[in-house]
Amino acid sequence: MIADHSANQTKAQPELVALFVSDTHLNTTLPLTTAAFLSFLDKQATQAKSLYLLGDLFEYWVGDDNINDSYNLPIVQALRKVRDHGVQLYWIAGNRDFLIGADFSAATGAILLNDPSVIDLAGKKIVLSHGDAQCTDDHAYMKFRAQVRQAEWQTTFLAMPLEQRKKIIEGLRTESKMEQKQKSVAIMDVNADAIAALFLQTGSSTMIHGHTHRPAIHTNNGQTRHVLPDWDCDCDDQTKRGGWLAAYSDGNIQAYNWDGNLK
């Protein structure tokens, strides 16, 4: 009699289909955060089929003519290395780096997606967004967002000298930080009706977004909303934060910390 060893065979592990990350806010003042993100690209991102960058990868982006900046270039090259490894790379603009354009896409190999975008992944219809467009209670920000997303405004801004653009962005960042101190957390979070409308509009049952810096999993009426964390590894060890979501071929979506450990 031939023994049946099938019961003892190891069950096949689900395949890593996609990774999702946002709000790293990379800049020269965050060297440890930058190193952690570059490590993520090298060790984790290269193991996936797809990597989705959902906005605010950079603290600010003044235009694609700044790609060769001594800080920006290594990050662009690291993203290109992931793409050259065979990983599909996708990008959705955030409120900090919405001026990412065709030259950045060509340099990194990233496909620029609209916000929102819907993907089919492991049997799930998932809507992806940065998340700021759903913060409709913040009327001042929504007005600003509408202005700077206009093609005419962007053309005028990008025609300015690079150093002038940097000074303008720095001023906007300072102003934004002051305004945030005067706003409630609720106002800066997504609006429930805007989220419900996005689910309805796209016919999705799963949503992934960032922006709010309030990582969580929200479930309601068969719908699941995953909120990505922001990153900061330049603070003390107890308050370091960051991470990503991993989607597997069995439909499971798992959250990981910045250091690669399960949440």
UniProtKB/TrEMBL annotation:
It is found in: Cell inner membrane. Keywords: Cell inner membrane, Cell membrane, Hydrolase, Lipid A biosynthesis, Lipid biosynthesis, Lipid metabolism, Manganese, Membrane, Metal-binding. Its main location: membrane. It is a peripheral membrane protein. The keyword Cytoplasm does not apply. Its cofactor is Mn(2+). Pathway: Glycolipid biosynthesis; lipid IV(A) biosynthesis; lipid IV(A) from (3R)-3-hydroxytetradecanoyl-[acyl-carrier-protein] and UDP-N-acetyl-alpha-D-glucosamine: step 4/6. Its EC number is 3.6.1.54. Binds 2 Mn(2+) ions per subunit in a binuclear metal center. Substrate binds at residues 95-96, 138, 176, 180, 183, 211. CDD domains: MPP_YbbF-LpxH. Mn(2+) 2 binds at residues 56, 95, 130, 211. GO terms for molecular function: hydrolase activity. Mn(2+) 1 binds at residues 23, 25, 56, 213. It catalyses: UDP-2-N,3-O-bis[(3R)-3-hydroxytetradecanoyl]-alpha-D-glucosamine + H2O = 2-N,3-O-bis[(3R)-3-hydroxytetradecanoyl]-alpha-D-glucosaminyl 1-phosphate + UMP + 2 H(+). Coiled coil: none annotated. Signal peptide: none annotated. It is an enzyme of class 3 (hydrolase). Residues 19-215 form the Calcineurin-like phosphoesterase domain. Pfam families: Metallophos (PF00149). HAMAP family: LpxH. Belongs to the LpxH family. Hydrolyzes the pyrophosphate bond of UDP-2,3-diacylglucosamine to yield 2,3-diacylglucosamine 1-phosphate (lipid X) and UMP by catalyzing the attack of water at the alpha-P atom. Involved in the biosynthesis of lipid A, a phosphorylated glycolipid that anchors the lipopolysaccharide to the outer membrane of the cell. This is UDP-2,3-diacylglucosamine hydrolase. It comes from Undibacterium umbellatum. The lineage of its organism: Bacteria, Pseudomonadati, Pseudomonadota, Betaproteobacteria, Burkholderiales. The gene is lpxH.
